[in-house]
């Protein structure tokens, strides 16, 4: 059995890591850390997780001794914790934005803070694109929730030089904002409502650009909306074609790119991907494949922000780091309805 630790285990993604790792056949969770709940049994904070026998501790990173450590901590905090874990010889999967950027200047611009660990470089942890690099990594930077669905649903378009402009519109569930309440997530402010936010300046735009821009200088824009669901991200992307292509050819390109991918499911013709179908699962459902008379391609994707958008993908990355089958412990379908 491989030993793993979850740092920041009292939060939403930490709780999801715990829920799924406790059912993983090849790992044992030996440590769950929290600063505020030192000494508290896991089920007092995550009431759905019973009989794990685990108690939160406030161990410092260098006191841990595991094969893989997950840092489910906010950006800014991770870059203080990760170097200690790496120095102590552990492999790390970081769920924050701290190590996702190839150029830390881009991070500093979009996150509005200095990056204090320019030495350690993460591999961008999107297995469907970077599996071979992840295998050799010491530090995996798990992608952001919006970027996961947005990149996967547009990547075949840019890889095949089909488009030069992508406009991405996403709807997210409220758990994306983490465990701490705020006026933005207060029930009367979100229920019966759709709230666009950071409409042209969300930091995930830079992460999506990083991954999609490189091909033919594709321009990418992104606008998120908060909707009154707990989990899930639905993304609609509108791309402008620069080559003539039929919807059938478009579908074939996606089938060729993703045919062997366990976690990517391409919808049948006319079938709309439903948010509820992926709730609780590590699957991405991709649909759309439509081209209108103006030459606009419409692609759709759905993920669970806490699973494929965070903790499930982090476990997928751990499986790759440990040389295990990528889908181990992650095969369950979603919770529809
Ligand atoms: N929620 C989501 O859908 C997604 C989240 N992410 C990213 O994953 C990370 C965790 O997110 P999420 O679980 O939602 O966040 P939460 O706010 O729910 O939990 C984060 C946990 O980290 C701990 N923490 C906070 N500050 C520090 C610190 N300075 N040092 C050490 N520990 C700290 C807290 O535990 P305690 O106070 O008990 O120590 C807290 O419970 C973030 O970087 C987030 O951006 C990525 C993709 C999706
Ligand atoms: C609903 C909501 O607030 N969502 C968050 C998603 C943040 C996240 O998970 O991404 P990082 O890991 O890049 O911080 C947001 O829009 O900031």
TrEMBL record:
<keyword id="KW-0963">Cytoplasm</keyword>
<keyword id="KW-0560">Oxidoreductase</keyword>
<dbReference type="InterPro" id="IPR000706">
    <property type="entry name" value="AGPR_type-1"/>
</dbReference>
<dbReference type="GO" id="GO:0051287">
    <property type="term" value="F:NAD binding"/>
</dbReference>
<dbReference type="Pfam" id="PF01118">
    <property type="entry name" value="Semialdhyde_dh"/>
</dbReference>
<dbReference type="GO" id="GO:0003942">
    <property type="term" value="F:N-acetyl-gamma-glutamyl-phosphate reductase activity"/>
</dbReference>
<dbReference type="InterPro" id="IPR036291">
    <property type="entry name" value="NAD(P)-bd_dom_sf"/>
</dbReference>
<feature type="active site">
    <location>
        <position position="145"/>
    </location>
</feature>
<dbReference type="GO" id="GO:0006526">
    <property type="term" value="P:L-arginine biosynthetic process"/>
</dbReference>
<dbReference type="Pfam" id="PF22698">
    <property type="entry name" value="Semialdhyde_dhC_1"/>
</dbReference>
<feature type="domain" description="Semialdehyde dehydrogenase NAD-binding">
    <location>
        <begin position="3"/>
        <end position="137"/>
    </location>
</feature>
<dbReference type="GO" id="GO:0005737">
    <property type="term" value="C:cytoplasm"/>
</dbReference>
<comment type="function">
    <text>Catalyzes the NADPH-dependent reduction of N-acetyl-5-glutamyl phosphate to yield N-acetyl-L-glutamate 5-semialdehyde.</text>
</comment>
<keyword id="KW-0055">Arginine biosynthesis</keyword>
<comment type="pathway">
    <text>Amino-acid biosynthesis; L-arginine biosynthesis; N(2)-acetyl-L-ornithine from L-glutamate: step 3/4.</text>
</comment>
<dbReference type="InterPro" id="IPR000534">
    <property type="entry name" value="Semialdehyde_DH_NAD-bd"/>
</dbReference>
<keyword id="KW-0521">NADP</keyword>
<keyword id="KW-0028">Amino-acid biosynthesis</keyword>
<protein>
    <recommendedName>
        <fullName>N-acetyl-gamma-glutamyl-phosphate reductase</fullName>
        <ecNumber>1.2.1.38</ecNumber>
    </recommendedName>
</protein>
<dbReference type="InterPro" id="IPR058924">
    <property type="entry name" value="AGPR_dimerisation_dom"/>
</dbReference>
<dbReference type="GO" id="GO:0070401">
    <property type="term" value="F:NADP+ binding"/>
</dbReference>
<dbReference type="InterPro" id="IPR050085">
    <property type="entry name" value="AGPR"/>
</dbReference>
<comment type="similarity">
    <text>Belongs to the NAGSA dehydrogenase family. Type 1 subfamily.</text>
</comment>
């Amino acid at each position: 059995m491989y030993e793993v630790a979850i740092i920041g285990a009292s939060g939403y993604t930490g709780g999801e890591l715990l829920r799924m790792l406790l059912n993983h056949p090849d790992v044992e969770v030996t440590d769950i850390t929290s600063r505020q709940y030192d000494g508290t049994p896991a089920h007092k904070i995550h009431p759905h997780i019973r009989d794990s026998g685990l108690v939160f501790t406030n161990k410092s990173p260098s006191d841990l001794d595991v094969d893989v450590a997950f840092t489910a901590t906010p950006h800014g905090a991770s870059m203080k914790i990760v170097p200690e874990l790496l120095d102590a010889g552990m492999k790390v999967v970081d769920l924050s934005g701290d190590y996702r950027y190839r150029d830390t200047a881009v991070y500093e611009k979009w996150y509005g803070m200095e990056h204090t660990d320019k030495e350690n470089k993460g591999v961008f942890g999107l297995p469907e694109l970077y599996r071979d690099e992840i295998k050799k990594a010491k530090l995996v930077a798990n992608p952001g929730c919006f970027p996961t669905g947005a990149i996967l649903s547009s990547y075949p378009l840019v890889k095949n030089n089909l488009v030069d402009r992508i406009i991405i519109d996403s709807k997210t569930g409220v758990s994306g904002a983490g465990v701490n309440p705020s006026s933005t997530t207060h029930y009367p402010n979100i229920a019966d409502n759709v709230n666009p936010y950071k409409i042209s300046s969300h930091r995930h735009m830079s992460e999506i650009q990083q991954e999609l821009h490189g091909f033919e200088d594709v321009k990418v824009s992104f606008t998120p909306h908060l909707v009154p669901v707990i989990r899930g991200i639905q993304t609609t992307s509108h791309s402008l074609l620069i080559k003539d292509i039929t919807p059938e050819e478009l579908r074939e390109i996606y089938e060729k790119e993703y045919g062997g991918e366990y976690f990517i499911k391409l919808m049948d013709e006319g079938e709309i991907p439903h948010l509820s179908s992926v709730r609780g699962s590590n699957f991405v459902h991709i649909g759309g494949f439509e081209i209108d008379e103006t030459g606009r391609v419409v692609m759709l994707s759905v993920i669970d922000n806490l699973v494929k958008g965070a903790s499930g993908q982090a476990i997928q990355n751990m499986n790759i780091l440990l040389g295990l089958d990528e889908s181990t412990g992650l095969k369950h379908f979603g919770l529809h309805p």
